[in-house]
Write a structure and sequence with these properties.
This protein has 128 residues and is of the alpha/beta class. The protein has four helices and four strands, in the order βαβαβαβα. Bound molecules: zinc ion (ZN).
């Protein structure tokens, strides 16, 4: 019998969203919709290893999706961002909002460790 009260986080498994190619004004809305729809199923790890380019509107879509995630008590983390994106995240100090991990495996293992722990719904940022 689990009675965790109202502080329970909805942290059930994680889905990997693989993004690829260019994320710019043409694909931003689509990307955002995809991420938000995946949040219905659980936490989301965004695999960026195949992304070649991301512009400011793409970054904005990730930030918006992260905001939705925290409202829904889900984790949204980034894995394997291209160097260009890492630099943008650094410059804009977005690592707090968008925790970033060097690859999907790392993101997944940190996430499952969090699920086993109680309390906090927060993945500490890592410098990639
Ligand atoms: Zn989670």
């Amino acid at each position: 019998m689990l009675d965790t009260g109202q502080e329970q986080f909805l942290c059930g498994g994680s889905t990997v969203a693989e993004l690829a190619g260019e994320i710019d004004i043409a694909t931003t809305e689509e990307t955002y919709e995809l991420l938000v729809s995946l949040l219905d199923d659980g936490c989301v790890i965004v695999d960026l290893s195949a992304v070649e380019f991301i512009d400011a509107s793409g970054v904005n879509a990730l930030v918006k999706a992260a905001r939705e995630a925290s409202l829904a008590h889900r984790h949204l983390t980034l894995a394997a961002p291209p160097r260009q994106l890492s630099r943008i995240l650094d410059v804009l100090a977005l690592h707090q909002i968008l925790p970033t991990h060097p690859d999907v495996d790392t993101a997944r293992s940190i996430h499952s460790r969090l699920q086993q722990g109680r309390g906090g719904h927060y993945i500490p940022p890592q410098v990639v």
